[in-house]
Amino acid sequence: QVQLVESGGGLVQPGGSLRLSCAASGIIFRFLTMHWYRQAPGKQRELVARITSGDSADYSDSVKGRFTISRDNAKNTVYLEMNSLKVEDTAVYYCNTYARTDYWGQGTQVTVSS
Question: CA triplet 87, 22, 59: central angle to 5 degrees?
Fold first, then answer.
């Protein structure tokens, strides 16, 4: 049974930082591309960052230079380090991967507010 479990969300002031984690089980993690998506209220879910099995990373323009995605294959975990957070980064953040079908975590809320 595949499970993706996110953690690390919370309330932070503008300019602050958070580190999200997504622990995976039931999949051969090291072979898979992992994604972080987010969905703000009233908006569509958008891709924030992805990291391939070879550690190649891509980012949306809105987070480039502020967010860093990384992975630890020994821990079956993918991370999203978020710095210089803005109010518009407020959203539920989801971990995702595709292995014959899409798998999603339950999401973790990130709120950026003063």
Answer: 55
The number of residues making up the chain comes to 114
Tokens (6 digits) for 54: 């070879």
76-101 pLDDT, tens digit per residue, is: 999 999 999 999 999 999 999 999 99
Structural tokens at position 46: 């958008």
Lay out the sheet containing 3-7: strands in order across: 3-7, 18-25, 77-82, 67-72
**What one-letter code names the amino acid at 39?**
Q
Integer CA distances (angstroms), 19 to 1, 28, 47, 94, in order: 26, 23, 17, 13
CA quadruple 93, 95, 98, 103: dihedral, nearest 10: -90
Q: How far apart are CA 57 and CA 37, in angstroms?
A: 14
